[in-house]
Structure formats: structure tokens, C-alpha cells
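pasting for the record
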Amino acid sequence: MSRFLIVRLGALGDVVHAIPVAAALRRAFPDARIDWLVSAKHREMLDLVPIIDRRLVINDRSDASGGTSLLSAIRELRQSRYDVALDLQGLIKSAVLARASGAPRVVGFSSRYVRERPARLLYTSAYDPGRGGLFDGRETRHVVDINLGMLGVLGITPGPASFPIEDVDTEAARVVRQQTVGRYALLNPGAAWPNKRWPPVRLAAIATALHERHGLRSVVLWGPGEEPLAAAVVAGATGSALLSPRSTIADLVALARRAALMVSGDTGPTHIAAALGTPIVGIYGPTRPARNGPLSPRDITVSRDAVCQCHHLRRCRLDRMCLLDIEVAEVLDAVERRLSAEPSRV
């Protein structure tokens, strides 16, 4: 085997969680060609992963720019003569693209773990992680470990997860360091799912406490459509927080790598920070920290997943989402414990 194709189109956090698969392939086959098929919206992340030989970018969303059409991507895939295609997404679309690559071996997840069951019909081999299934309550393994397990189908022992992400610096990161004298925490109020967002007023209280107790200014991150959320945190923090500049993925990597702490829900920026080793306090509700949380044993998650009635649903079905039961004092306690576990970062 010398030519591999990884298919993981998105989302941002899921792309990050698949990077260790590429790293394990590179360790097992140093001279192999490793390509990755990704949506145009998430290409920026892979631009910072040097072990990938080629990023095949498709424009499969109306809100994305750049990349090629699905048909053009298939033609390009077939010209590459891959030995193996790995579908880490588990959708019908991703399975079709993996099969259309022409690779004689197309590996994906079993029917219990694919997101869309017909996808399994397009694989020549399937990896079954066992236990209950993709979103089963009994699943206690991290998604990174589940992804790496797929390599066992190829006879590869992956070893510990690693995230080879370039150490970059950017103008936005330099501006933040100047404004904070190089000592700052990151707060992230946004998330694609509304029920993953902890209230801005509570994050503002965290920012105030970080400044009063540790002299740390907080930099509040925001993505498309999230600036009002971030501005609300800054307004409530009475000078203890500042609004992040408009940020690219490279900016986020540069900011996270040098931050003393990140406080955030389950979302892409959290997973980037976790991959970089940034100390994290995660705030979790509809998703399980065991599966989607930060990987470091020193990181702390404050979670209501044990009582959540809306696991893996984008919107809460109840009158009051479980995240609202997490009070400021509980998160502050987690912040203090996390900072004390790594005092050199403060």
C-alpha cells in the first residue's frame, strides 16, 4: 500500500479529530502518498497539517467558496489510483466519493457507526468499534480513538494520537499579545448548535474572575454570525475581556497555542485548542465529554450529559436546556483546578 485517500469533508472539529489517522498512516508508511478530500469550508485546517501530500477540495455547500465540483473531484480522484480509501465521515455522499475514487479497498464504519446506514453498502471492508453504536449511551471511547481503530482493518497499530499542526504566528495573534502583554485566556461563546452555548453573561463573570484573581485578560473568540455573542461577553466583563479580531483558522491556532486557558463548549475551536495542548475547561450538555471532550487528562469538563434529554440533537426539546443548570461557581472551580494543574501557563 502506497497511496491513501482520507475522506472527511467536515465539520471543523471532526476534521481535527481525524488528523491522527493521517499521522498514524505517515508513521506506518513514511514514503506513502496521503491525500485528503475535504469541503472547501474546512480546507484551512488541513493547510496547517504538513504530513498531507494533497488536499482535494470540493465545493459541496452553497455558502463555501473555492474548490471544485463533485463531478470534477471524482475525475481527479480516479486519476490518482489510490490503493485504499478511508471514509471517516459515514455519509452516503462521503461513501460514494470514497468508492468513486476507484481504490480497490474502501474502508468505512459498520452499519451501527455510520451516520447514514446505506453508506455501509459502498465499503469493501467495515470497521465495527463494538458496543452500542455511533451515539449510544454506552460509548465511552473518544471519537479520536474510534477513528484510529479503523486502521486495524489494514493491519496497522496506530499508537498514541498525535496532531502534527504547524506552529504559526499571525498578525492577529501579535495584536492580541500586545493588548494583553502576552498573558491571556480564550473564551468561546459560540457554537453551531444553540444548546451548546453557555450564556454570555456567565462567561463575562468568568472573564472578570480571571482578571481579578490571576491578572489574565480574556480574549473572546467569534466566528461567522457570532460577533454579537462575543460582544455581549466583552460588554459584561467590565474591562476584563477584549473582542478577538476577525480570525482565520491560522489565527485561531496561533492564539490557542499561546493561551493560558480556554473556556468553551463543544465546538471546533475547542478541538483545535485540545489538539495543540491548550489547557481547557469544557462546558458540555447535549454531547458527551467521553466521546467529544478534550483529550488531556488534566483538562476538565463541566457536563450535564448524564441528565440531558436531547443527546446529539441540535436544539433542546425541553423548555430549559441543561446547559443553563451549570452555574458560574461550578465553572470557576474547574478553572481554578485546571490552572493549578499547569501553573507555568499562567
